[in-house]
Specification:
about 600 residues; alpha+beta; 5 domains; nine-stranded antiparallel beta sheet; 16 helices
């Protein structure tokens, strides 16, 4: 090998070594990559101090971006359009770039081969104040070891960072803009107005003294929960696509194309500082690949046309009925200590005891109240809502069944002299019932379920336990099944004996089982004599239990109702009819064969 050949080989080896060092070799402490400094540490640009960002692209397919932080600390796009930015996304982009570690620093003589001359792929300028950029980073070419050449504009050396910086910074206005359909301060909204194109109606609600009222087309208390839900959900709806901004959002042809020249719904929202207008246009054609979307136009803080989920139409498609307060009567249910139900000549009075139990006062006695039924009465009336309003200043109350009312329900609250009174009138053809408060002229219609229960009075509200005795107090039990001879059992000490129609020892287990069932007997519902179109002339079964204190209870079980439950009553209260569970009645039936002991039955 001659000297010339050797020299050529040496030069080639040096070149290969230099290329390896340039493209593959990391700094000597490569094993401790996490200890290498981050960009924001080296150039003293912590993300939270940045007030302005400019991103410029060599690729003309991308628009240069300018973002500025406003006085509230939120980001806005100011170029190429002026719109709110998604502050979370902008901060994430800055974090992704500024937290990248500087892998290696290189001193170079010229920049062209690294893509860092006059046309870098991306230029990122960062301002910490408004005078001049605190740092400007030029992003050049990728290397083959997943790095990219980078340079701070004012410095002569270059450095390597992860090549993912290119993806982090390659963003469009759509990528970074805020996708909130509309933004306003829900706490300071004072007016909301909804106009419906198809019905021609306009509903205007106003917040006065921290309370919402409907002020047009009627004057009424508003449903605050409905309005607050509407206002809180509107800002959560997100834009699907951006169709136009600024002047482009007001082009007549575009408005007509999207159904925004005569919107289906127009909403105006006024808060302390701004008036926002939201127009709901036509549905986006299904062939556009965006099913369930509608066109909307927002103006006020910024003018724009978007496509948004049709949920926005459903949310804002409200009538005056939807937005007015539908509660019929207002009282403090937890402070209620007495109620009174008047129906014709019948009056049911309930009083709360010191231990918060309830009892009913009848003309003949005081009886324990059903706690669940009383709760259903008080909570049900307090939350009773209108299904429709009878509007108009003058009413012939008699024609609605209020002179006199068919039922009057009064609730007395602790510390209040006058009770809250609900008047119940006629039933309408659609099954609803007219009601009004005693203090108001407003007549409303309500669903009948609660009213039907109130009409039962004591039958609904009394305790559902049918008999009140201790099992050890029962001394005689008589069974009379339909078409069968009565069977009587007598207690002798702790045992039972059949005394009719035969005289012999009884099956104690069978008799005691029935006694236990009678002791725990609960009515599913008291229905009253009017609600039970059934005769007890032909009984299914009759049971009479006699007690040591000479009390006698006779339970009469009649026919089943349509649901399979059995009508029943106590003989001494024939008009107080109740229903028994269909599975319970067979347990109360027995036969002479079952009542006889097994030994006797085998004789």
């Amino acid at each position: 090998m001659n000297f010339k050949t050797t020299l050529i080989i040496v030069i080639l080896l040096i070149g290969i070594g230099g290329a390896y060092y340039l493209f593959f070799q990391e700094s000597p402490d490569d094993a401790s990559t996490d200890e290498k400094p981050m960009i924001h540490q080296v150039y003293n640009v912590p993300r939270d101090t940045i007030q302005q960002v400019e991103i410029s692209f060599a690729d003309t397919a991308y628009q240069n971006l300018k973002l500025e932080k406003d006085g509230t600390g939120n980001w806005r796009l100011t170029k190429p359009i002026q719109v709110d930015a998604d502050s979370k996304k902008v901060n994430q982009v800055l974090d992704d770039v500024l937290n990248k570690r500087i892998k290696q620093t290189l001193e170079v003589s010229e920049l062209t081969q690294y893509g860092l001359d006059n046309t870098p792929s991306i230029t990122l300028a960062l301002w910490t104040n408004r005078e001049a950029p605190a740092a400007t980073f030029l992003i050049g070419k990728k290397t083959i070891n997943f790095s990219v050449y980078t340079k701070e504009k004012s410095e002569s050396h270059i450095f390597l960072i992860e090549s993912s910086a290119l993806d982090d910074l390659t963003k469009s206005t759509t990528d970074l803009r805020d996708r909130s359909m509309i933004k306003f301060d829900t706490e300071t909204v004072s007016h909301i107005q909804l106009q419906q194109r198809d019905t021609g109606s306009t509903v205007h609600c106003e917040k006065r003294d921290n309370a919402w009222r409907v002020v047009h087309p009627i004057q009424a208390k508003a449903d605050a929960e409905e309005i607050e839900t509407l206002l809180s959900e509107l800002p959560t709806l997100k834009v699907s696509t951006f169709e136009g901004d600024g002047a482009d959002a007001n082009v007549p042809a575009r408005l007509e194309k999207y159904g925004l020249d005569t919107p289906r719904i127009r909403v105006q929202i006024i808060d302390t500082d701004n008036t926002y207008t939201l127009n709901i246009g036509s549905a986006v054609p299904a062939e556009n690949g965006t099913q369930g979307q509608v066109y909307v136009k927002v103006s006020g803080h910024q003018d724009a046309i978007y496509t948004v989920s049709e949920d926005v139409y459903n949310l804002l498609n409200k009538s005056v009925f939807d937005l007015r307060d539908k509660r019929v009567i207002d009282f403090q249910r937890t402070d209620t200590i007495r109620f009174e139900i008047k129906k014709g000549k019948e009056t049911t009075i309930g009083t709360r005891n010191f231990d918060d139990t309830w009892e009913l006062q009848t003309p003949t006695a005081k009886i324990k109240a059903d706690a669940d039924a009383v709760s259903d009465l008080i909570f049900g009336v307090d939350s009773l809502e209108a299904t429709a309003f009878v509007d108009g200043p003058n009413h012939n109350f008699g024609s609605y069944g209020f002179v006199p009312p068919s039922i009057e329900v009064a609730f007395t609250q602790r510390g209040e002299e006058k009770p809250a009174v609900l008047l119940i009138g006629n039933r309408t053809q659609d099954g609803t019932v007219y009601v009004k408060t005693k203090q108001s002229t407003q007549i409303v219609r309500v669903k009948p379920a609660l009213i039907d229960n109130i009409a039962l009075g004591t039958a609904w509200l009394r305790d559902k336990q049918v008999l009140d005795f201790h099992i050890d107090d029962a001394i005689r039990l008589t069974f009379t099944a339909s078409g069968e001879e009565p069977i009587t059992c007598q207690r002798l000490g702790t045992n039972w004996r059949i005394t009719a129609p035969v005289q012999e020892d009884a099956n104690n287990i069978e008799v005691n089982t029935i006694i236990y069932e009678l002791d725990d007997l609960m009515a599913e519902a008291f229905v009253g004599s009017e609600a039970a179109p059934v005769s007890f002339d032909k009984l299914n079964v009759q049971l009479t239990v006699e007690l040591r204190n000479q009390k006698v209870y006779t339970l009469q079980i009649g026919k089943p109702d349509a649901s399979g439950r059995f009508y029943a009553r106590l003989q001494h209260e024939p008009d107080l009819i109740f229903l028994l569970n269909a599975e319970l009645v067979p347990k109360l039936k027995t036969t002479l064969a079952l009542l006889r002991t097994s030994e006797q039955g085998s004789l």
